[in-house]
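Submission sheet (multi-component)
Chains listed below:
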Amino acid sequence: MLLELENITIPTLDQKCVIVNKASFGIKEGSIHALMGPNGSGKSTLAYAIMGLPNYRPSEGKIYFDGNDITDLTITERARLGMTLAWQEPARIEGLTVPKYICLGIKEKKNLKEKVMEALEIVNLEPDRYFNRTIDDTLSGGERKRVELAAVIAMRPKLIILDEPDSGLDMIVIEDFLNIFNKIRNLDMTILLITHREDIGMVADYGTLLWRGDVLMTAEFPKVMVHYCAKAGLKDFCRRTLFQQEGKCFGKEYIEGLLKEVDWND
Amino acid sequence: MTNSEYPEDILQSLEDYNIDINDFLPGHGKGAKLLLDFNKIKGIEQIEGVILKGKEIENGIVADVIIKEGTKIEEPIHLCFGVNKESGVQEIFPRIIAENNTEVKVQAHCSFPNANGLIHKMFGHFYIGDNCNFTYSETHYHGENSGALVAPVGYMYIGKNSIFENNFNLTKGTPGKVKILIDIFAMENSIIRSNIKAFGKCKGDSIRIRDSVFLEGHHARSVIKMKAAAKDGGEVLMYGMTEGNAPYCNGHVECSEIVLGKGSICRARPFIRALDATSSVSHEASLGRFPQKWLDELMAKGLSEPEATDILIEAMLQEE
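Outcome: structure written.
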């Protein structure tokens, strides 16, 4: 496993409530792993704890990355070991140019221009149009998210945590983002994809279902999705989404079998 | 004139502000130039439509820059007040006149790379005529020892329908003791943009800047933007002032400052006054540190907190 969580509990800052309760699961190297759950289930909190943000320190449990215990390491130390996080709403910093921002995480400072161009091309941004731009309000939401993805891709980390990369994007753009995730996987990077959208998760190999702070299951993604939809009462949506993938990812029998695995309460 | 005839560390400090030194010396490039080496005129070059005259006095020079009526030039006029010595007194008395209907950029450089007890004073008078588009940019580099005392004063008259942009940049090296006073008088329908940036980096750095705009003509407009950072004991006071003294004039003052490290002080004092009932003047000021989320985002890319902070300061001070 590239990343392993062992009984991670994350309390609120005042320590009065528990946001994530004894979470344990692992992420295989080279996979796309979706962390699913409805709003408020603790997904982003868990992502921030994995990245080491000071206000999201676990009160108990261990986090292992590439075989090392990283529970007590800072954000910077974790990033230097090869993990990073792309925020749901990345900051807009006037005065910081797109190429300079993309270069921030590149360790080997040779051929920076080529590396920036390559990263921009992976996220389908024309390099010539973005070399003189800054990461300020003049970028649209979709452009800013693509620049963020370009910056984390340029780092070439082992693990990228994507916190709700689909938020605020229209369906056409989302389709493009799913293709970008596959490109990232082909570059030997592992993705932890935080999302509450079942259709976004379809790009994932594995999934973990988080429900009110508890990890309910970790399995192949379609199984996790079916359980998630059953908990949320979304049978028709689940059928439709799975059958859209018929022939692409799995056959009709497999889908029917999955749908029979859970109690739909109908 | 070749590069070897002018102090290398002064030229180097200009390059740090992205100034192309190949076009900078007399005999190179298309722009007019006036270069000082301490209190000696080292080079002077006029072009058509621009009169440049200088006279050496006991502790400095008196200089005239006159842009003749109707002159429109793309290449900036370079004025370089360089001092390579550690100490001494340099006093500059420039008089800059842009006659009516002119379009010009003046780029002034105050470079004191080895300052350690050096005093630089400037008493500048600007007269910008009607229907002009005039940009005055001044970059400062005072070395790395906080060893300069720099006290420029500028009085600027901006004529009817003219656009005047003032850019002051003191973000490289350690400033030392800096006291700057700028008074801009804006006549009818003129537009003033004044951008001030300063960075106090250590205990020996104390920067006080007063940038004032007096909107004296009807429908005159102005924006003062002051940006500063102080760290490791540095001190910055930004005093942005606008008076609306004429009908339908409109002014705005904006100060943003970042303070970092023990003993550092940032102060912002926007001062606005409206003496005409139809005028409108506003201000906003913010002091403090960068949002933690910004730092977290940069640290997630492998930067330490001090590295992330430096990147954010640089971005803030580069922002147009």
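Remark: The radius of gyration of chain A is 19 Å.
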